[in-house]
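Figure S4 source data
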Amino acid sequence: MEISLQELAAALEKTDVLQGYADTRDGRIILMGEEESDARVEAASQEEARMERLLVLEEDWQRYVPLPDLYDAEIRSIMQAFAERAQEEARAALGEALSGASARLRFRRTVQRLSLEAAWQAHLSASLLMLARDWCEENAIAYRE
């Protein structure tokens, strides 16, 4: 079974807050914490069920491959590449936003201020697709575009 690169790329964007797995048998991407919740079930029961699912996933390591936190590791270079490709006026503002602490927040605010949201999302999506493809190839996981 093949993994959808689109689904994997979307999951990689969330791996900074959610642990994810690629199910190599069924071609699914599983994000822990995105399970459907039932308001009638107690929080303790939900946590127990989550731990049981996690143990099953971890025990069958050949089938369920953990997703890395590529997003956190790569987001700065993705933002820098976007800034470098921007028009001259925007390039300076985006470059300045990337300097120092809290660069991610300043960068996103600058993107909004410059009305570059659509271009940023297209760049981010394309970058995450490339990361997803590279990860699949490195881990010998079949994928579909």
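Figure S5 source data
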Amino acid sequence: MTLRALLVLVLTLTFAAAPFVTPPFTGYSPETFPVVIDRPAIQPAGYAFSIWGLIYLWLIAHAAFGFWKRSKSLDWDETRLPLATSLGLGTLWLWIAPHFPLSATVVIFVMLVAAMAAFLAADEFYDRWLLSGPLGVYAGWLSAATAVSIGILLAGYGLLSNTEAAYAMIAVILAFASLIQFLRPEMPGYGATVIWALAGITLVNLNSHIFVSAAAGGAAFLLGSLIAWQWRRSKALGH
């Protein structure tokens, strides 16, 4: 278990360091697709990506505490192999994404599956804010980012129009995130992170694709309503 805790710590540090040793990534280059779209409607506003600062710092705190204080904990250990898988792929992702969008989409999908396995395996009451908390925010952002990546591919390869791809992926984000939030009602950070991404899609499309903006805003409202209902229900039950 100690070796797995150390592995998570090392991979977390390489994952957080990757942006400092790769060229800045601002999205897939439109020229890499048969259909050139200067601004994919599904892509959030640039400010939304600032959440990576929180994700990196919280994952580092998670990994350091896990190695220092919980290296022999069975509860923590259940999350380590899937999390290490996701972080290892994430370390490579920034090298792949600028040149191979299709491969990058496959990689981020696997990252999401692994991160979700870690998040769902995390004990909901044990070290909540250093175990479930950071895993939930990380999985939440990957949920949105995977849908965004798929949406860009759908439009870029002409399978759907730019706005059709946005509508489809907003629906996917809402359905998937609602399911996960329903399964983990005690961790609103997951859903809040997805709402942050949806807000980025809402704002960036206000002046260009107003109906896409409305769809993203509506999805954010519905997901927020679910979280609020879960919170009220938890208070009523005395949790």
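The helical segments are 2-21, 51-69, 74-96, 101-121, 132-156, 162-183, 188-204, 210-237. The first helix runs from residue 2 to 21.
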